[in-house]
Amino acid sequence: MQVNLDPKLSAVSSEGTSLILKEGDVYQAKVKEKLPGNEAILQIRGKDVTVKVEGDLPESGKVAIEVLQTKDGMPVVKAAEAAGRPAEKMTADQLLVRLNSGQPLSSDVKAAVSVLMEKGIPLNRETLQEIKLFVGKAEGSLPQKLETIKAAANKQLEITAKQLSYVHDALHKSSVGESVSQLLKETGLELETQAKPAYTSQKLVETAIQKLTDVLQAVAKQRPNDPVIQQLIEALKQGESVKKVGEAIKLQFAKELLTSPQISKSIDDAIKLEMLANRMSPATAVAAEKTEITAAQKLTAILQTLGKQNPGSMAIGQLIEELQQGADLTEISEAVKDKFSKELSASPQLLKEIDHLIGQEKAKANVQPDVKAINAKTEINEAIRMVKKEPDMQKLLRQVRDGLLADNKLPAGLGKSIELGVEKAEQEMAGGKELAARGELMHILQEADAKLQPASLIPADEVYTIPNEIIASLPAHSKDLIVTKITEKLSQMTIDFKQIKRDISRNLQMMDGLINQFKQRSLPQVKPLLESTIKMLDKTILKGDFLLYTDMATEKKLLRASSQLSEAKQLLMKGQTSEASKIVSEVKKLIENVIFKPADVRVKHFVSKELLQFEPPSLKKETAEGISQSLRMMHDEPTGRRAFEHMRTMGLTYEHEQANALLSKGKPQEELNASLKNMLMRMAQTDEGSAGGKTDQLLSQITGQQLLSKTDTGGLQSMMMSLPFLLQDKVENFKVFIQSKSGQQTVDWENCSLYFLFETKKLGEIGVSLTAVDRLLSIKVKNDKPGFKERMSPLAEAAKERLGDIGYQVGAIQFEELTKEAAPSARSKKEKSENTLLPVMTEKGYDYTI
Fold this sequence. Notes:
The protein is α+β, with helices and mostly antiparallel strands and 850 residues long. The protein has 35 helices and 14 strands. The strands form three sheets. Strands 1, 7, 8, 9, 10, 11 and 12 form a seven-stranded mixed sheet that branches. Strands 2-3-4-6-5 form a five-stranded mixed beta barrel. A two-stranded antiparallel ribbon has the order 13-14. The chain is extended, with a radius of gyration of 36 Å. This is Flagellar hook-length control protein-like C-terminal domain-containing protein.
């Protein structure tokens, strides 16, 4: 699988760009060639620059040069050591003093400047002042500050105190995990590896009682001296059923409820809440089923009430009989409104209940339309596509007869008209008029397609059914809306996933045919198709919403398919067509067997997210809720896609996605705004983010990670991230350093290096180094605790199996000490701790200095 770095938004490639030398800047340069006319070709920061020279330059080797001016479009430079009088060469220290307005510099600043000079970063007065400001104000030891400057120089960041501060916070401040843990504590959120239901049965009952209490207090304002009100409040306190008390309120205060529809609704909501609570509690599940009133029973009760008002009405008995025989509820409800309009106008409550029943039935009809009609539309659309692409007309007519017209797939009238059209097309073919036959078949199919209902309606067999325990956890006031939203979203995903599967399978079938037909000559035709299929699959894995709702096994299968197709491409390039064909066939079978089935645990998180929109918390609580859900999902299902979504939740891709949303159709704005970085920026502008500077610190750490992960312009791509994770219900932290060859804005997963640094309380720091070369993966695990290897060996074997599932070949896992024994030193333990450095990304790999 390829991890794209978004070419639209990444930094401009160094190829084709010129290096601009600023007047007054000092650069480290390499003399490549001296030219006539006091000119020379210098290599500065990896690029060849032609300059005019004042004074002398060495014939070759490295030299510090100062830019004097630009003349005729060419920089004019001189050796920095010769900046003074010819007879008195200026030392590097004297040069720094001159840039510092004649004032001497501290040894710390000199050390920082030397790091920049070694990297070829230009030095001028402004840069020197920024370095002084950073070195003077930043917390931490000198080695840590020098490491920060080195990291910024490696990424070719602009050297300013602010940028250096961001990078320093990302590398050396208290871990992001600690900051996130503090945020969760302040909002009172408890993190557990098994997420609790959003609403417990007890909470639902308490909410229902409170609703009825509010109703009684509202009624008391209209009837202040009524003793019944206090009696009902006492009954609620003593544990009386919410349903009984609600019905008593309706009987006793019917007149008041007629003038206040909102109060009447609150009573209905309270009763529903109690019913939901009963469903959630196993002890009362049976009782809840008995008390639940179905729509048909409600309509029967309404008809019986109307029967009491019209004792001699034959129509009521007839309607009740039709209901018992399973007649359509909507039709019966409409008939009741037509025949008893006078009675219902005198009883608004009954009319309201009928309207509610009609609304419920229509909502069901919208979610689950006529299955046969929609399946027929799908079949017809496929037949239309075949008419456009299938060259053999005889074969096409057979497929329509055997497929579309077989097994009574179409509604009766529609099937007959298509059959007549097929017969007419066959007659045209018999007369040698193939073009007319194709036109006739296309015409009849398009006509049939227009008669069917829109394809946007979802077939019943593809409608996602939400488990009862999830529905039971929803509050009554938002249940219907959330259930409808989730059902529609996940059902549409099922349809979209089937289409993607169909497209990928078709491509693979075509590739297999081309390879078998052309053998060694198949590369020009197969390679573009194979690359587009890999890109389609990777886009599904990384950017499609499917994997946010399905299980880990499905994600592993898709990752495996992507890696196998990459392997097939390599084999094809080597001319090993039979092996490539075999892999393509295997992947086709794998893809066809993948079924999109949303996992309940992931749907629960989606439900919790939707609930927040109905009861918006404070900004800080909203931020904490979002990150806690992401942490739990990472713990429960630590997949590649979940890790990527965790990074998105933290806000590491925030600016890129905002820009992408403007350039093209990206993520919805509400999803982009849900990231931790966006919320921290909003909190920083309000009173919520002002206390203690914790918000600013966490925001700075995230920004620093983004700077250290920006797209590199050279041949290597390096990234650094610090992410929180859950370990035994506590928030811990890990850092990951990635280095890979950078080609076409992607990280090469088959050839890359990763270093993870986990911070744990029990085992201390754990380092995990992974190096992949052509998918061969070597792993080193580093820790200083005695017995660590014995404790981790079983987990290591499980990790090898998981890595193998996604396409890596894993050798033996080595265990080493994290901290190498150093020579005795007079430094105190505290000083050693302060000067402990992280693995540093360099051009040659990782520097594991501790």
